[in-house]
From TrEMBL:
The keyword Lipid metabolism does not apply. SUPFAM superfamilies: C-terminal domain of transcriptional repressors. The keyword Kinase does not apply. It comes from Roseateles puraquae. Signal peptide: none annotated. GO terms for molecular function: transition metal ion binding. Residues 7-83 form the Ferrous iron transporter FeoA-like domain. This is Ferrous iron transporter FeoA-like domain-containing protein. InterPro entries: Fe-transptr_FeoA-like, FeoA_core_dom, Transcriptional_repressor_C.
């Protein structure tokens, strides 16, 4: 049986090559969508989780394009991804 496809960056396994499909924001922080887009989280962009914090809902270290960022779990939940086809 195969692994389920990640639906958001927050649940994606470390090391898997992904593509950003969509960026949304929670109702309580609508500015997050623009902030994440400014960082480079745009549809079609390559992204990969490099490291996860010790706890399941901890911070993530992610690579988008040529940049590396630390994101909170809640921010990573705003980024819909699919596996990247190479």
């Amino acid at each position: 049986m195969s692994e389920p496809l990640p639906s958001s960056l927050a649940v994606a396994p470390a090391g898997l090559a992904l593509t950003v499909e969509q960026v949304s924001a929670p109702q309580h922080s609508p500015e997050w969508a623009g902030w994440l887009a400014d960082l480079g989280f745009l549809p079609g962009e390559a992204v990969r989780v490099l490291r996860r914090g010790a706890q399941r809902t901890g911070n993530l270290v992610v690579r988008v394009g040529q940049s590396t960022f630390a994101l909170r779990h809640a921010e990573a939940e705003c980024i819909a991804v699919t596996p990247r086809h190479v």
